[in-house]
Amino acid sequence: MGYIPQKSLENLKKYAYKGVDKSVLSRYVLNPFWTWFVTLWPLSVAPNTITLIGLMIVFFNFITMIYYDPLYLTAKGGASGPPQWMYFTWAFGLFAYQSLDAIDGKQARRTGMAGPLGQMFDHGCDALNTTLECILASHALNLGRSWWTVASQIATHANFYLTTWEEYHTGQLFLGVFSGPVEGILMIVGIYALTGLYGPSFWDQKIFTFTHLEHIPIIQKLPNLPLNESFMVFGALGLAFNIIASYVNVRSAMKTAGKPSVRPLLLLLPFVTSVGIQIAWLSHPEFNHSAIIKSPLFVPFLCAWGLQFAHQVGRMILAHVTSTPFPRWDWIWIWSVIGAVDANLPRVIGRGPIIQSSMRNTALFVWMTLTISLIVYARFCTLVINDITDYLGIACFTVRKKDEHGVWRHKDHKA
């Protein structure tokens, strides 16, 4: 019951990472820093260890949020939230994650460990970070339990899915002049820093009032949204641009290969399906006493959703490095489908939910969904790592050594 068919294992040896980074900031500012930063790490440190350290820093930031604001209310909801200095640690943690995520590939080339395992591990950590940072950033923006936070999660997941979908069809990772892993992360670092200086309520100011543009006649015709909601609109425009740019790249690759250029669009439907399931669960009738979005279950729900998303894109990346068919359905969605159908029974057949008949039962079901999603994703990671390390004769967290002939060897090839 592994994830890699036996006949596809040989494709692992054919895989080679290809990437294009058009970011001016990355090329002239960050990359020189990363090139220096990687030299501080001993060659005995495996690149996957560096990636994991970065994820652990972000997870620590997430734990501090839960500690200071376990109900995820933020100032808008009546909670004091974390002390303001804590947001600076989130800024440092995210910048550290970006730096460590950028140098793991450089460390892999330094140690001769570049390959499909590093690609899988790096993208797997990125997928988890996407959800964690979405929750943290929404907290810093004072969005709290709201549909804006849900929209933020959808947008960040959509960008990651698009990048993975594009890489599957083109064979290389494209980072444009403005990309999430570079400029997007630095923008969120800036949000954390501003929240640390002025507090979460800073983002409730009206954008045109804040910029002193509200007296301009043409500006008065536009909605004077709060800063946090304006940032969400900016993110939506960025997502629209990324959709177009990704499809242009995929269309070009398909034409070059002599393949249909419209068919890849159908493979965006799995993401739309997964989002539709989660939205259906969240938008159930409120009179069934289980409004998740208005309860402390909101963060566990988002985390379960994030783990299911990580499993989905993990299978996509695995399909890319093993040259296997694109995954169109993920069985882990079944649990959320049950939750969505049950919660919407009042709307569908006019009777109350069977499983989520009370807030207590809803809590048990959401936490069970989170637990199952965590177990399934952990199983996926374990099986994939073991399959790759066994077949390629490498280790996940140990650097290989060269023998007397200059060939990379490893005595213990287990993960």
Automatic annotation (TrEMBL):
<dbReference type="GO" id="GO:0004142">
    <property type="term" value="F:diacylglycerol cholinephosphotransferase activity"/>
</dbReference>
<dbReference type="GO" id="GO:0016020">
    <property type="term" value="C:membrane"/>
</dbReference>
<dbReference type="InterPro" id="IPR043130">
    <property type="entry name" value="CDP-OH_PTrfase_TM_dom"/>
</dbReference>
<keyword id="KW-0808">Transferase</keyword>
<feature type="transmembrane region" description="Helical">
    <location>
        <begin position="50"/>
        <end position="68"/>
    </location>
</feature>
<dbReference type="Pfam" id="PF01066">
    <property type="entry name" value="CDP-OH_P_transf"/>
</dbReference>
<keyword id="KW-0812">Transmembrane</keyword>
<dbReference type="GO" id="GO:0012505">
    <property type="term" value="C:endomembrane system"/>
</dbReference>
<feature type="transmembrane region" description="Helical">
    <location>
        <begin position="362"/>
        <end position="380"/>
    </location>
</feature>
<feature type="transmembrane region" description="Helical">
    <location>
        <begin position="262"/>
        <end position="281"/>
    </location>
</feature>
<feature type="transmembrane region" description="Helical">
    <location>
        <begin position="331"/>
        <end position="350"/>
    </location>
</feature>
<comment type="pathway">
    <text>Phospholipid metabolism; phosphatidylcholine biosynthesis; phosphatidylcholine from phosphocholine: step 2/2.</text>
</comment>
<dbReference type="InterPro" id="IPR000462">
    <property type="entry name" value="CDP-OH_P_trans"/>
</dbReference>
<dbReference type="InterPro" id="IPR048254">
    <property type="entry name" value="CDP_ALCOHOL_P_TRANSF_CS"/>
</dbReference>
<protein>
    <recommendedName>
        <fullName>diacylglycerol cholinephosphotransferase</fullName>
        <ecNumber>2.7.8.2</ecNumber>
    </recommendedName>
</protein>
<keyword id="KW-0472">Membrane</keyword>
<feature type="transmembrane region" description="Helical">
    <location>
        <begin position="173"/>
        <end position="194"/>
    </location>
</feature>
<feature type="transmembrane region" description="Helical">
    <location>
        <begin position="231"/>
        <end position="250"/>
    </location>
</feature>
<dbReference type="InterPro" id="IPR014472">
    <property type="entry name" value="CHOPT"/>
</dbReference>
<comment type="similarity">
    <text>Belongs to the CDP-alcohol phosphatidyltransferase class-I family.</text>
</comment>
<keyword id="KW-1133">Transmembrane helix</keyword>
